[in-house]
Model the fold of this input.
Amino acid sequence: MRTLLYFNLRDKATAQLAQARLGDLAGTPTLVAGPWFVQRDNQPVDGLPTIDVGQTTYREEAAITGIFIGAIVGALVIFRYGVSAGAGATAVAYVGAVILGAMIGWWVCGLVGGKIGRLALWRQNAQMAPGQLLMIASCDTRSKEALKQLINELGGVGVDEHSDLMPNFRWL
Done:
């Protein structure tokens, strides 16, 4: 399982040093991805990789929920209004409605979830001083503590962590 770790860094120099140290870990079995950086109010940092909206919001979680909600709504629509052409047509209508409902639910809930920020990050972002940065790094659960220790040695403060329940589900 992948984990997103969030850290507060003092300045851009510390961020560049952290990026270099994590780059050294990238070829090792620690399986670290990133880091990505953002300033106060989600402003990008010049010369450093920027974050993806899904890393600081509930976009993926809402989209996954939307798949199930949309599929159920699609099935309920066919159940309510039905198809009078026979059993085969009804089965095809159910499958089509469930798939279409799941796709629409995924899209709509992903849009809505992209507007909802993670509470701990929102609170931390509001308290950040000018010049401070938020760093996000992705790692597997085995290397989480080593990554935390490395960033703490550089003066970074752990803000939050988020376990990715379905790491291979993003391809949808």
